[in-house]
Amino acid sequence: MTNLPSLDALKAQAKRLQQSLAETGQSVHHSQSLELLAKQLGFRDWNTLCAKAGNAMTPLINLGQSITGFYMGKPFSGTIIRARDIQQGAKTQITVRFDKPVNVSKFESMAVERRQVSAIIGRDGRTLEKTSDGTPHMYVTLG
Fold this sequence. Notes:
- By secondary structure, the protein is an alpha+beta fold.
- It folds into 2 domains: about 5-55, no CATH class; about 65-140, no CATH class.
- The protein has helices at about 5-25, 30-40, 45-55; strands spanning about 65-70, 75-85, 90-105, 115-120, 140.
- It has a 5-stranded antiparallel beta sheet with strand order 4-3-2-1-5, with no helix packed on it.
- The protein is elongated.
- The mean pLDDT is about 85.
């Protein structure tokens, strides 16, 4: 399983499993429901699942979060309107709605404004994609 829920969510799921089994007349202890859940998710036992879930990186950015940074070399502030975890927190696919449109044109006589953009950023807050001068397309700091 690539995207595991938090340990609290897994424990709550095991408790629901325990309650569902009790409703069918199959009484199990909480520790047994943890073990059953681990096996359902393809793990050897609860300790293995717990270690895997506990080692997953927390997402870099969350939906609704305010951020600041640079897009195409221009400063911005905005809000995350979409966020999707990639590679267990190693990267995040985001869509940012800028507070004010960002003019990405290199020429003062021309305006090319962006109101929102999507990008995949690493844990360092930078995109792998770069402009011709080697600058990341986007660099974000948490607001």
